[in-house]
Structures
1.
Amino acid sequence: MKKHHPKVVQGTAASAGIGIGTAWILEDEETIVRPEKIEKEEVEQHLEKFENAKKSVIKDYLHLKKMTDDEDVAAIIEAQIQTLKDPELNSLIEAKIHGKKYGVIYAVFSTFNEYIQLMETSDARWLNDRSIDVISIRDQLIHFLQDRRKKQPIPKKAVVLAREVSPTVLIQLSRMEISGIVMEKGGLTSHAVILSQSLGIPCVVGAPWKKYQIHNGTEAILDGVTGEVIFKPFDSQREEFKQREASQKHKLEENLKWTRKPHEALCGTKFTLRANIEFLEELSRLAPFGAKGVGLLRTETILFQTEKFDVNEQVDFYSKVAEASNHEPVTIRLFDAGGDKLLDNVASDANPFLGWRGVRMLLDEKVLLEKQLEAIYRVSGLHKGKLKILIPMISSLEEVIAIKKHIEEVKTKLLNDSVEIDPDVPIGIMVEVPSTALMAKEIGRHADFFSIGTNDLTQYTLAVDRVNEKISHLFQPNHPSVWKLIKMIKEGADHNNIPVAVCGEMASDPKAAACFLGLGINDLSMNTGAIPGVQAVLCKHTITQMQEFAALVLEAEQTAQIIELFKHWGNENPD
Amino acid sequence: MITQKVKVKNESGLHARPSSVLVKVASRFESDFFIRMYGYKVNGKSILGVMTLAAECGAEMELIVDGPDEEDAMKEIAELFEKEFEISD
């Protein structure tokens, strides 16, 4: 027997948990096809190959359709099947095979491309967006024909290896009982990472797995806590990771026990942990993790998915979230994305994070804003006292005043149409730009609450683009200046007697959460997966301990000092 | 062969979802089905053809049905336009 050596790849830990299984490579290489001619005798064979490829891909879609109970997903799959059965497309492909004597692969490739080009150059934005669906069918057919396609669906317990994973693919993967995900690219704040934490899938990013010859089926292990990835482990290593898995599971179960306890510190001081939610798939995790409603509902994805930001589709989405939250509140953040992502004829910003986004874009795009507000207020009538609105990217008081004027207009219009609404939906401000933190006292007078977005506050304060991998080491949420601003925000809120919440990723770090409580910020929202760990630490300490900790953090002059404080604090309390 | 003029009434136009519904219904019939719009003529049983028309709300088009069950087919297809494809949008 040939002796083997385990291959170890070190990445960045992104989502906790151990995954043990077999490697499964998620292809993303670009499909390149050259025109190849065939002989007359081969025509039949190539037509048959095309039929088989089509049948096989249709079968996959039918299987996928059976697995989903989501009506929208089913409709998308149905359209994919219709495309595969499209009579015009099929006769064009067949004509290229028996008429022009092109090989089946080129016939498929070129015919699809003609349609794709038509869709991509259309004036209709929705049609541009749909081209991705047709591209994916094209590639599925080509992969089948080139025999590159996985013959089996993703095996259970697979460790999925990819360059990068989109949020949509991640959701698909989450339904397949995979063991974990290893990405070559990706910073810690990408949506896929946040989602993997929320869905409880172990994940390692920034892992250069491609430098090894990894094949599907190679045994693989990943540790989402240490960032290690091991291929072909020794028996002893496998055992070690199994033990780690058991101990992590034990710890998670221990932490999960805390989620059944009240949200109270050791001394009885109350706090509230809520969930950050983006997809309906995440809602089932609210109850088991003891989340008190949704502290941040991201609406970008739903808006990208709806046609022309349709009001009814939004109403449906917000209603489902409100229902899943029982009697707990839901804070809906208005659409927060760059304008280039959603409107035609907009040149992309050179500095998108400093550009036309959040409230800046909403104030310019009145139809988009009004449709979203209408949907929210329509739902508010059915769930009185439950919804809150959060305005993203505020950098001046003028913006607050302007958007509140729009809100009043939408309310008046709906009331005139005799629509039942909740007129008292609290309007909060996302504090993520330093100018707003500095003006918290003044701006707070015009807000019903503050919610601190720590990722953006960090990047704007430190002038560090958080998606730029080259300077990712400079992205330090624990920079003393960030904590100073947080304190300033809290003081501004206290001055106006309004509550402050934190909905940024920082809240999911148990020790940062303790520090927030120490500063008097008791309302924290995070991805559901982080709740048990945070709750365990908060429940095990008294508010005095946390206040002392916060005081030390605020005295620090360097990030390293704060990191050191974080390392040592709280370890004295036994589990 | 029978023809009939219809108008796209749903707010978002003949986007992906309505196109899919239209093709699904049309494919149930044996008759050939074509849509003529702005001088284009596409196969109404081809989802890619229908989608690439990118017909917006208010667009007028001519439905052409030809075959043994053309009467029934036209009735059902025209009704779809009338009922805005029975999907909320």
Note: The longest helix of chain A spans residues 43-67.
2.
Amino acid sequence: MTAVAIDGLRFSYGGGAFALHIAALHIGPGECVACIGPSGSGKTTLVNLLAGIDVPSAGAVRLDDVVLSQLPDRARRAWRLARVGLLFQELELLDYLSALDNILLPFHLAGGAAVTAARLDAARGLASSVGLGAALLRRRPHHLSQGERQRVALCRALVTEPKLLLCDEPTGNLDPATANSVLDLTFAQARTRGATLFMVTHDHALLPRFDRVLDMTTLAAAS
Amino acid sequence: MNGLAFLTWSHLRRNPGRTAILVACTALALFLPVAGALLVSGYERDLVARARATPMVLGSKGNRFDLVLTALYFRASKLAPITQGAAQDLQAEGNGTVIPLHLGYTARQRPVVGTTPEYFELRKLLAAQGTLPLLLGDACVGADVARDLQLAPGGALFSDPRELYDIAVPPALKLRVCGVLPRTGSADDGAVFVDVKTGWVLEGLAHGHQDPQRGVDPGLVLRQDRDKDGRDGIVLSEAMIEYNEITEQNVADFHFHGDPAHLPLTAVLFVPDSPKAATMTKAKVNFKGDLQMLIPEVVVRDLVAFVFQLKKLFDALTLTLGGITAALTALVLLLSARLRRREMQTLHRLGCSPRTVTLLYVGEVAFMFALGAALALVLLAATLALFPDPAALVGAP
């Protein structure tokens, strides 16, 4: 049983020189995987392919036995909203929404009816579990500290209870102490929910904490 | 609430300044031309309606616009007067109803209109309070005059003396308010109506003073003799004080000097009995050459056609203003779109389709436009409620 399976993947941006080729990559359910590699080696591209944002020109990306790369665009988006949690380096919180509404954003994007009372309670509970109290949830992002914003972004990635959590250098802008704290939370939440964690990082000091480390240089060379 | 609507509303709510400016710009860009067009067309409608309700106007030769606008709106003008004799001649022909108008005097800055009861029949006016002016010294005031000066039957107002420091001109006359006219939305609302004879009293052509035959101070009698017809004639000093109020006690002392046929009128409204009578009377009067008979509707339509050439300029300016507003609004929205590009990319990465992202932005623009349009409608309704009579708002021409 694999949570993520890539077979014979080929991808290139239209007209560009960059090309990514991954012969095989398998990640087990609940596994925490770090992805390292120099800039331009295709780490973010791989995250985009796993999220279904980009589609490979050849090969398949399979998530929980669903061939994501074969789904039509609409289905892939629905899948991403419901089943994939995304955590970005710049956090990408919406400045005009409160912290709570930022956490609920995937539900808002899925349609207003998706924000049920039960989900609202669950979102509050999730926020509370990472130390975001009711007062903080009412604030807008620019009234929160960097660490608090990081936690809001993490909650947004987890609120739909995804089976796959994709993190693109989420600790890139943080000092070591805060980075460790964010990582602690991310690991804890992913494990609590049984989610598979795939994190792109440049911080080699964090690598021992992962179950497995993928080096994009090696991965691409093996292909 | 729909998710997109929620995001749209949240974004607008968190940017109140930008939202308010764009909504206000949209509202004004929609409100100004529509309100302008409605008020202008209402103004035109009012002008033509009053002209149509006044079949014909007789007056001295000269500017036809001046004569018609003076007769319709009681404007101060420098029209040469015609005589009461001309009105009597017209009446004698029996082709219609003659309504004299004596203008040029004011009471508390409101025009005093000397006329006869036929004027009120023509305008289908009955007093809302009290009675129409039937007696010398009576005044029936328009609705606006009554409101502004807080007048009611039983009250009084003084005419405005033409020359305050010239004792040779008639003094201010105290007018008894006998009635108040209903609101008509026309020039009648702002006028003070008196009997035409009261108009002549204001002009000093009729006056009242102590009877020289009954115990007047002999020092005021300058000469006493008989005229060629054998009637007693008395010449009194100007020191003799004239009455400045017409009362039941002194009304009998008011009298005219000179030939009544020579008494002046500003204009005469003429209501012909038939189209044939209208044609004949018009041709006859205009053929004589010293007077002119006009059809107000024709004159006003000419005037409207001439004056409303300006409306084209106004429309062009409004269009330019609307274009500039639209361009500025588009610029603000474009800049806003650029500022929000990163947000849109985030929404796209989270799972939003490009269509949904576009809808989010277009929805916001549409919402602001709808809000602006709603505000414009509210402003329009308020304008029409506050100014139901455009002619009263802009003033008579």
Note: The two ends of chain B are 54 Å apart (CA to CA).
